[in-house]
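Subgroup meeting minutes
Present: P.N., E.W., G.H.
Scribe: E.W.

1. P.N. recapped why we're keeping a running log of single-chain structure predictions: easier to compare across weeks, and new members can see raw inputs and outputs side by side.
2. G.H. added today's entry (96 aa).
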Amino acid sequence: MLEKLSVDDETRYQAEMRERALRNKVSELAAAREEGIEEGREEGREEGLKQGEIIGQIRLLQEMLKHLICSEKDLVQKSIEELNKMLQELKAELKS
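Output recorded in log:
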């Protein structure tokens, strides 16, 4: 009977340790996921600010050059690369 209690205690201990390890792993994964989400939000905010700055410059230059001013809605749909290209073209036109 004493042997059976000893084996049961050991089995219970091992099960508790496995359960604890699983809980720790789940917590680690949840924390890593939250960190990744926050990093993504920060990158999105930075890109949005950059995009807004470029759009503002484009619209200002279009106004200065007496061009048809693109709507913000249309400009927001363009990539940063497309916006930068537009901006560079307008700047070049302003210089000439």
